[in-house]
Amino acid sequence: MKTLLIINPKAGIQKKKLGELKEKLFLEEENQLEREIKTFFEKHKLHLDIKRTKKAGDATRIAKTSKDYDAIIAAGGDGTVNEVINGLENYETKIGIIPLGSENVMAKELKIPLKVKRACEIIIKGKTKDVDVGLANKKKFLFVSGIGFDANAITNVQPKIKQILGKHSYAVAALKTLFEHNPEELIITINKKEVVKGYFVIISNTKRYGGKLMLTPDAELDDGFLDLCVFKNKDIWSMIKYLLSARAGQIKKIKDIEHYKIKTAHIKSKKKVLFHTDAEIGGTTPVNIKVLPRQIKLIVP
Q1: Which domains does the chain have, with CATH numbers?
Q2: pLDDT tens digits, residue range 244-300?
Q3: Omega of the bond prior to 286 within 30 degrees of 0, cis?
Q4: Taking each helix axis from N to C terminus, what angle separates 236-247 and 169-180, rounded to the nearest 10 degrees?
Q5: For 78-93, what is each residue's pLDDT tens digit?
Q6: How far is CA 237 from each of CA 23, 181, 182, 230, 244, rounded to the nearest angstrom?
Q7: pTM to 2 decimals?
Q8: pLDDT at 173 over 80
Q9: Is the pLDDT of residue 134 over 60?
Q10: Phi-psi map region of 113: left, alpha, beta (phi>0 left; psi -120 to 50 alpha)
C-alpha cells in the first residue's frame, strides 16, 4: 500500500520565542516523532513517504497533488485533518489519523487512540468506513459547520492565552463571545422548501460537538444526511440554557431549538455573519450547505 504521511509538527504546540538551544531541542523532538512513526510502519513492511506542513493550507496543497497514494495519513490536529479532506481528489484514497493536536475532537469522535503508537496500529489494521462529508460553499467539513456564535468564538481564541491554557482557551473565548457578541438574525432554507429563522446554526455530521456537547443526538456519519440545529433565541440566559442542556444530553427537550435532517440548506442574513468548517473559519454568509454521501474512506478502529 503506497502511503503518504502529512505531518504538522507544530500541532498542539504553541511555540514561543525560543533561544538557539531550545529551538534545536524542539527540532530534534520533531524529527524523533517522525522517525518513530516511520520505523513503526517499516516494521510492518509498509513504506511511508513523509511531507511536513509549514503553514496553513499546506496539507490541502500536498493532498491535492498526491492522487497516486493508496492512503494518506494526517498527523496533526483537527485543522490538519480538515485540510487533507479539502485537498483529497481521489476518493478511493484511505484517510488515516494520528492525533497530535490540542483538542483532537475528530479522533475522539472516531474512537481513535490519542497515543501515537496505538493510532498507528489502527492504521496498520486498515479497517475503513465510508462516511459522509458536508460542504459549506466550497469548504468541506467532516464533523461540523457553525454559523454565528461559535465561529465568532473561534476568532476570539488568542494565541497567548492558548499558550497558557491550551484547549481551555476555547472556553475563555466562548465566554468572551457570549458577553460581547450581538447575534444577527439568520434566515435558513431547509431542503429547498421550509424557511425558518434563528440566531445561531449548527450543521453536524456526528452526535457530539467538541467532543462533549450532545447537540445532534440523531446524527450519523454515514446516513446520507447532515443534522441541522437552529437556536431561536439570542439572550445570554438562553445561550447558557442551551449549553447546560447540551452537556446533560437533554438538547431535544428545549423547545426553542429546532432540529432538521437535511440534504441541503441555504443560510443568509442582512449583515455578514461568520461561518466555520471543523473549527476553521470558512467565510461569511450567505452559505450554501449540502451533504456529499459516503465521500471519503476513513481508517477507523
Answers
A1: 3-126 (3.40.50.10330), 139-293 (2.60.200.40)
A2: 888 888 999 999 999 999 999 999 999 999 999 998 899 999 999 999 999 999 999
A3: yes
A4: 150
A5: 889 999 999 998 889 9
A6: 46, 14, 14, 16, 11
A7: 0.86
A8: no
A9: yes
A10: beta
Q: DSSP for the chain, please give it.
A: --EEEEE-TTTT-------HHHHHHHHHHHHHHHHHHHHHHHHTT--EEEEE--STTHHHHHHHT-TT-SEEEEEESHHHHHHHHHH---TTSEEEEEE-SSS-HHHHHTT--SSHHHHHHHHHHT-EEEEEEEEETTEEESSEEEESHHHHHHHT--HHHHHHHGGGHHHHHHHHHHHH--PPPEEEEETTTEEEEESEEEEESSSEETTTEES-TT--TTSS-EEEEEE---SHHHHHHHHHHHHTT-GGG-TTEEEEEESEEEEE-SS--EEEETTEEEEESSEEEEEEEEEEEEE--
Look at residue 29 in the predicted model and tell me its pLDDT. 56
The CA–CA distances, whole Å, from 247 to 100, 199, 241 equal 25, 20, 10
pLDDT, the chain, mean = 87
Q: What are the cell numbers at 183? A: 447575534
Residue of 2, 142, 7 whose CA lies nearest to 73: 7
Tell me which amino acid residue 21 is. Answer: L
- Looking at the DSSP bridge assignments, the partners of residue 264 are 290
C-alpha cell at 235: 439572550
